[in-house]
Every structure is written in C-alpha cells, then in structure tokens.
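Training component of the fellowship. As part of building independent skills, the fellow (R.M.) carried out the full modelling exercise for a liganded target. The chosen ligand was zinc ion. The inputs are recorded below so that the supervisory panel can assess the work.
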Amino acid sequence: MLLERFLSYVKIDTQSDESAEGVPSTKKQFDLARKLEQELIEMGLQDVSLDEHCYVMAKLPSNQKEDSVSLGLIAHMDTSPDMSGKDVKPMLHKNYDGEDILLPSGVVISKKENPFLQNYIGQTVITTDGTTLLGADDKAGVTVIMEALHHLATHPEIPHGTICVAFTPDEEIGRGADFFDVQKFGADVAYTIDGGEIGELEYESFNAASAKITVHGKNVHPGTAKDVMVNSILLANELALRFPVQETPQHTEGYEGFYHLNDIQGSVEGTTLRYIIRDFDRQHFEERKQFVQTTVENFAKEKNVTIDLEVKDQYYNMGEIIKDHMELIEIAKKAFLKNEVEPKIQPIRGGTDGSRLSYMGLPTPNIFTGGHNYHGKLELVPLESMEKCKEIVLSIIDEFRTISKVK
Ligand SMILES: [Zn+2]
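Fellow's submitted model of the complex:
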C-alpha cells in the first residue's frame, strides 16, 4: 500500500552533502537505492540497474502491439542538507480537524501561518515529530512512481506503452543530472514527480549561475597599518552594497530574478563572497552576469585592489525546451482534470533534475507530490494528495499509450 511504502522510504536516511565531492555525495543514499532495486526486480521490471553513481533505472516494457512513445518517470532519493533526515519518526494525523498541529518536540504547525491546512480537513496529514524533515521531497515522488508501477505490474490486462523509471541521487545539491545516462534511460519524454502541493504543474525554471568573488587585502600589524593595510573584509562588505538592494530573494516573487549573497568568509588578507544569480529570462540572466562582471571590475579599479571572479552556469530555464513539446503539458492537464485536480501552472523559482535533463535531450516537466514546507521540521504531506498523484500518473501513462513514436 502507498502509505506503508512511503513510511518505509522516509525512515531511510538519504541526506546529501554539498561539502562532499562526487556523486553520490553520501554513501547512505545507496541504502534506499538498493531497496528500490530489489523491489523493482521483485515486481518483474526489466533492465533493473543500480550504477556506481547511485542511479536506479528500470523498464516496464510495453504490453501492446503498437509502438508508442516511451514515457520516463523520475524522482530523487536524497533529502535536503538543510535539515537532518536521520531517525525520521512519521506521525499520522488521521481525520485532520483543521486546527494547529502540535508536534511532540514542541514545534507547532499553525493554521495561521499555514492557511493551506484548511484544504486537508478530514484527510490524513503526515508530519514528523518535529525534530527532522519528513523527506516527502522527494520520497513521495519515489513512492508514487513505485505504486503506479506496482499497479501495472499486478494488472497485466491494463494496456500501456514502455515506461522507463529512474531514481536519482543528489538532486538537492544540484548534481542529480551529472551522471544521468539519458541514452540508457531510453525514454523519449519524461516527468519528474518532485513538486509541492496538489495541482502543481511546472515547466519553467530559473536560469541559474553561481559567482565566487575573492577580494584580496593586505595585512600588517594594526599598530603600524596607516596607509598600508587593506582590509578585504570591509571592502567585500562595501562591494556587496553595490548590488541592487531590491533584487534579492526576500524582495522578489513570480517571474522576478535576483542576486543572492549566500556566504561570506574572510580575513583581512582575503574575503570570499558567494552569490547565486537567478532569472527566468535568458537575456536578463546574461545581463545579470554581465552586471556582476562590470561591478567587480569597476570596484577593483576604484579601490586599486585585486579581485578574482569566477562565474559558473548551473542550469537553464527548461521552458525554452518544453515550449516545443507543449503536448507534455496538455497531456498532464488532461490527466489532472480527469482526476478532478485543478492544474496550477506556475514557474519554479528554482530548478529540478528536469531543468538539466531537458537540455540533455529529454524534455522533463515537473508534477506535484503533494508536500508542503519542504527542507524543514514543519514538512508535511497529506496522504490523499499522494494518492491523487498516483492516479494522475496512471492517467498520464494511459494517455501516452496512444501516442505513436515519431520516427
Ligand atoms: Zn525535490
């Protein structure tokens, strides 16, 4: 059953770690990967594999004569480095009454700060005990895919095309697509099941880059520092103020982009600022990177100091690719409505594995899992939302069954 499956997955700690090299960043992600591999084999799927980078892949071959489009379904196994995912103790709030949820740790999920709770009155809301995250991001996605496969595997009379599934490591630290073998995966198109609340359907993501700015100073004894010392900490702070004050995460929403200073570390001798740069529009994104370049160059000249700048692109807006595959969105919408779920189409103010996969030749929009308050102690997911998601995935599979492969 869906619930038991979900509970068994969230109890396995799969937290990824940004500071560790390689993929997977943490060996413990294999604990879930091996379990999934085993379960896929038991279900009778074909080409089940778990590679050295912790990617689980498998195929449910078509059971019909006509050659239809191969459909991919993808979810990630890791959980966010922001909050512990160890010893997760899921709590079921059955027949939820719409009031504040008091967790054993003393943490409260208040109805005032979480107005969406009202939508789940009478449902089974799943939380933690308030000491860890839940991991519905993205074990709800993993669960939904496994349940849909299980349904088809145990009902061979239901016709379907070829279904390709992949469970990825390290999505939360932006490495989920690093070793994703699109060729081996074998799908023509795919969906990630990795969104938030019920109804979310997303096909636009940020364009994303990181910038590392290192200001070099000069340290001497403070007693004899006059006209000699160059304090890079002070310079770095001054430089940060040259960035537009309103274009930060806390001042933007919708389609607005930003510069986000997320780390600053230094001494008199040298200080490093780390930024992430985000924008939906590719042109504006390029302009933002140019702004960083120009601002740093001008500041270095003005202060007569050396500054190193390293800008790296991370991923691009998948909307650029999906706009040529809008049938993916139409099919998803149809499947949502068939299951009485109103599609909420919105841009992702972030990225998913799909952002990079779309540019690797696999158009991959994103579908909700049902969860809320990801990456923290207040995370929760209504069981009914996950069940709807499973029904929708089955409807999507059914829609694709009649779409023939373009040769
Ligand atoms: Zn996720």
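The panel noted the following from the submitted structure. The mean pLDDT is 97. The first strand starts at residue 46 and ends at 50.
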